[in-house]
Design a protein that fits this description.
The protein has 168 residues and is mostly helical. Helix 3 crosses helix 4. It starts with a helix and ends in a 27-residue tail after the last helix. The model has no long low-confidence stretch (mean pLDDT 80).
């Protein structure tokens, strides 16, 4: 699963800057995205599920703000997405100071990025099991079309529940 996440994020990170400069934008081509993700994986202790959650969060940020993963935003967006996913999902995780060292930015910058990221997703970090499975399935089975901004190009549609029992 992790390899599929890396491949998709690597593909997105090749795009030219598609958004104006934000706090998430840095210098183009700082470190190859594959190397950056390997560094995160090696040092962050994040579970494999956190990388799927990070993809979901990145799509949520993009849909809410228009801020998508591209050459200039990939490193910081991915760092914060993995940090937030780790804090939400894993019982043990490293501090922002440690994550900032892994990511090559200052702790103050990481704190500001985390705050902006959480505001962008309206502090909504819960992912329904069906949505998680949807992402896993698409990451494993499909090669997303070039030009898609979403990590998983087919949006998750929650099932509609109908309650017809009038005794309630």
């Amino acid at each position: 699963m992790y390899a599929n996440v890396v491949n998709r994020l690597e593909q997105l990170a090749e795009r030219q800057n598609i958004e104006g400069a934000t706090r998430f934008h840095g210098d183009e081509g700082e470190v190859a995205i594959r190397s950056y993700l390997e560094r995160l994986r090696e040092h962050s202790g994040a579970s494999e599920e956190c990388y799927v959650l990070a993809c979901i969060y990145l799509d949520r940020v993009g849909e809410a703000t228009g801020l998508w993963v591209d050459r200039c935003s990939a490193h910081r967006l991915i760092l914060v997405a993995v940090l937030v996913a780790t804090k939400y999902r894993d019982d043990k995780y490293y501090s922002n100071i440690f994550f900032a060292k892994i990511g090559g930015i200052t702790p103050a910058s990481l704190n500001a990025l985390e705050r902006d990221f959480l505001k962008a997703v309206s502090f909504t970090l819960h992912v329904a099991p069906l949505e998680f499975d949807h992402y896993v399935q698409h990451l494993q089975d499909t090669e997303p079309p070039r030009g898609s901004s979403l990590i998983v190009p087919t949006p998750y549609e929650p099932p509609v529940l109908h309650f017809h029992d009038r005794r309630l």
